[in-house]
C-alpha cells in the first residue's frame, strides 16, 4: 500500500484542476482501495467511477464542478490503479465487488453514480445485481456495444488468435518481474498521448504528475505492470445488452462520436433498441472517449440536471 | 520435492511426484482440491517424470487477498508450471480439466496432449450468466481460498469460446488427438469440445499410452 498523493507535483498545474480535499482507504476483503473526495462531507454522496488503466485523478477538473453544485463527490482507484493496492488477481467481478465495498463504506442508501468507460460496464452489473443500491446512473462512453471493447481486460474479446493468446501468457509469465518504464513527466505524457491523442499536452502532463510516482531513475505510472491493456474472456456483448434492456435504475448515457484506442466504440443508433424504459442517450459530436475531459462544464451541467 | 514458481504476486507450489527420464506429465487438481502426495494409481503406468501443481489459493500455493479468480488466470498458473517442467502432457481433474484445455490451446508447443477427467469444478458456471453474486466471502489464509471456490464455480464457458482453445490445440500442436476426454460427465462446454476436430473420447490408460509416445 502506498500513500495517496496529497497534491500534484508543485510545478504542474492545469486550469480548473483541483486535487481531492480528503483521502482515505477502504479495505475490500484484504485489498486496500484508495478513496478520495471533493466537496463538503455533509453533502449528499455522488460517486465517480474511472475506466480501465485510469485512476480517480482523471476527475480533477470534472469532480470539482459537481462538488461546487452541492455534492460530496467520491471516487476511488480500482485495484492495481492509482494508489490502490497492486493485487495478486484482477477480474471484472473483483472490480465490481471493490466498488460495492467503497459504496458500503460511505452509505447503505441508494446513491447516484457517474461512470466512465469500463467503469460504466461495471456499474451496469452493479445496477442489475443490486438495483436498490443505485438511485441514478450516468454512463460516459461505456455502454455496451456489439463490437468488442479494447480496454476490457480479461472479460471479452472471444475471437482471439494463438498469437495474442501467447502474448497474454508471456505477459503473465513475466508479471512478477515487470516494471513500468521510467521517464520524465514529459515522456510519460507523450506515451499517454498515443492512447489519448485528443487530450491536450498540458492535461496529459498534469495527469502524469498525479498518476505517476517518482523513483530514483525517473517517473513511473503507478498502474500495476501486471495489468495489460486488452485481453480476452468468455463474456459476450449480447449479455451486456440484455442486461441494459432490463435495468430499472434511471439511466443517462453519453456517447462519443470519434473513435479512439481506449474508446468504447458504442454505436449510438444500434444501442437505442436496448435502452431501458426512460433511458436517454446523448451523443457528443466531434468528441472522443473522454467526454467529461473534453467538455467538463457541458457534461457537468447535463449530469446535474439529470440528478436534480 | 516441491519448488515454488512465481506468477505475479503468487507463489505456486509445483511438486515432483516422480523423478526420472522420459516424457513429463503435469497433473492439475480439481476445484477445492490440492496436488496428490504421491503418484495416483491411475497414472502409475506413465513412463516418465510426474509433476503436480497447486493452483493459486489451493494446496501449498499463496492465498491472495480479495479474490479475483478466473479460469484464464489459472491457465497462467499452468503456464508458469510448464516454464519449469518443459513440454509435458497435462492431465486435469474437474476444474483442472478445463484449465488443461485452455493451456493446450494457449501453449500448443508445450502441451504434449491434454487429458480431461471428471472432478469438482468440471461444469463451471454454464454458458451464460445466471444470478450474480458480487458480495465477497469471509477471507481466510488457509487453502482452499473461499473466493476461489465461489468465483471458479461460476466462471462462464460458452461453447464457442471453449472450442476455440481445442481448435488452437489441434491446429498448432501437431498431435492427433491433441485432447483426450477421459471422464464420464459431459457439461455443455465439454460436449462441444468433444465434438471438435482433434479431440477424442478414450480411456485414460489409452490416452496415457498415446501421449507418452507422442514425441515431436
Task: Please describe what this structure looks like.
The complex is a heterodimer of chains A (308) and B (216). With 308 residues, chain A is α/β, with parallel strands linked by helices. Chain A has a domain of 200 residues: Alpha/Beta hydrolase fold, catalytic domain (Rossmann fold, 3-Layer(aba) Sandwich), CATH 3.40.50.1820. Chain A contains 10 helices and 10 strands. In chain A, helix 2 packs across helix 3 and helix 5 packs across helix 6. The longest helix of chain A has 15 residues. About 2% of the residues of chain A have low confidence. Chain B has 216 residues and is an alpha/beta fold. Chain B has a single domain, classed as 3-Layer(aba) Sandwich (Rossmann fold). Helices cover 29% and strands 20% of the residues of chain B. In chain B, strands 1-2-4-3-5-6-7-8 form an 8-stranded mixed beta sheet, with helices on both faces. In chain B, helix 1 packs across helix 2, helix 2 crosses helix 4 and helix 4 packs parallel to helix 5. The mean pLDDT of chain B is 95. Classes of the chains: A alpha/beta (308), B alpha/beta (216). At the A-B interface, helix 2, helix 3 and helix 4 of A face helix 1 and helix 4 of B.
Amino acid at each position: 500500500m502506498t500513500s495517496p498523493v496529497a497534491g500534484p507535483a508543485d510545478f504542474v498545474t492545469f486550469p480548473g484542476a483541483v486535487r481531492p480535499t480528503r483521502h482515505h482507504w477502504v479495505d475490500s476483503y484484504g485489498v486496500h482501495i484508495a478513496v478520495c473526495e471533493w466537496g463538503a462531507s455533509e453533502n449528499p454522496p455522488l460517486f465517480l467511477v474511472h475506466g480501465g488503466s485510469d485512476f480517480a485523478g482523471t476527475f480533477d477538473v470534472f469532480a470539482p464542478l459537481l462538488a461546487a453544485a452541492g455534492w460530496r463527490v467520491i471516487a476511488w482507484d480500482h485495484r492495481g490503479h492509482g494508489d490502490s493496492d497492486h493485487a495478486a488477481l484482477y477480474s471484472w467481478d473483483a472490480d465490481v465487488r471493490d466498488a460495492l465495498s467503497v459504496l458500503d463504506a460511505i452509505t447503505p442508501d441508494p446513491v447516484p453514480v457517474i461512470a466512465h468507460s469500463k467503469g460504466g460496464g461495471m456499474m451496469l452489473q452493479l445496477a442489475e445485481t443490486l438495483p436498490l443500491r443505485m438511485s441514478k446512473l450516468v454512463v460516459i462512453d461505456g455502454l455496451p456495444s456489439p463490437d468488442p471493447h479494447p480496454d476490457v481486460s480479461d472479460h471479452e474479446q472471444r475471437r482471439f488468435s494463438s498469437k495474442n493468446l501467447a502474448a497474454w501468457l508471456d505477459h503473465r509469465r513475466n508479471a512478477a518481474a515487470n516494471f513500468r518504464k521510467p521517464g520524465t513527466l514529459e515522456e510519460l505524457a507523450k506515451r499517454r498521448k498515443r492512447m489519448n491523442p485528443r487530450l491536450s499536452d498540458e492535461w496529459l502532463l498534469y495527469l502524469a504528475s498525479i498518476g505517476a510516482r517518482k523513483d530514483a531513475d525517473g517517473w513511473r505510472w503507478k498502474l500495476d505492470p501486471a495489468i495489460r491493456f486488452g485481453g480476452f474472456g468468455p463474456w459476450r456483448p449480447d449479455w451486456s445488452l440484455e442486461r441494459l434492456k432490463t435495468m430499472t435504475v434511471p439511466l443517462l448515457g453519453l456517447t462519443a462520436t470519434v473513435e479512439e484506442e481506449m474508446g468504447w466504440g458504442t454505436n449510438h443508433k444500434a444501442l437505442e433498441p436496448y435502452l431501458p424504459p426512460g433511458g436517454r442517450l446523448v451523443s457528443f459530436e466531434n468528441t472522443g472517449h473522454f467526454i467529461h475531459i473534453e467538455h467538463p462544464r457541458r457534461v457537468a451541467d447535463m449530469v446535474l440536471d439529470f440528478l436534480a | 520435492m516441491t519448488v515454488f514458481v512465481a506468477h505475479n504476486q503468487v507463489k505456486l507450489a509445483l511438486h515432483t511426484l516422480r523423478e526420472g527420464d522420459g516424457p513429463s506429465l503435469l497433473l492439475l487438481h480439481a476445484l477445492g482440491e490440492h496436488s496428490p502426495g504421491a503418484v495416483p494409481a491411475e497414472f502409475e503406468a506413465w513412463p516418465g517424470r510426474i509433476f503436480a501443481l497447486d493452483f493459486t489459493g489451493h494446496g501449498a500455493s499463496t492465498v491472495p487477498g480479495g479474490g479475483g479468480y478466473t479460469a484464464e488466470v489459472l491457465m497462467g498458473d499452468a503456464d508458469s508450471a510448464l516454464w519449469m517442467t518443459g513440454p509435458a502432457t497435462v492431465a486435469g481433474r474437474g476444474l483442472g480439466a478445463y484449465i488443461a484445455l485452455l493451456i493446450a490451446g494457449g501453449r500448443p508447443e508445450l502441451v504434449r496432449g491434454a487429458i480431461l477427467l471428471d472432478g469438482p469444478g468440471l461444469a463451471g458456471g454454464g454458458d451464460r450468466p445466471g444470478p450474480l453474486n458480487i458480495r465477497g466471502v469471509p477471507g481466510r489464509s488457509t487453502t482452499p481460498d473461499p473466493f476461489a471456490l465461489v468465483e471458479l464455480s461460476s466462471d462462464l464457458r460458452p461453447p464457442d469460446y471453449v472450442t476455440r482453445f481445442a481448435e488452437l490445440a489441434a491446429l498448432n500442436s501437431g498431435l492427433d488427438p491433441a485432447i483426450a476426454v477421459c471422464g464420464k460427465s459431459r457439461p455443455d462446454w465439454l460436449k462441444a469440445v468433444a465434438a471438435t476436430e482433434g479431440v477424442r473420447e478414450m480411456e485414460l490408460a489409452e490416452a496415457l499410452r498415446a501421449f507418452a509416445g507422442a514425441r515431436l
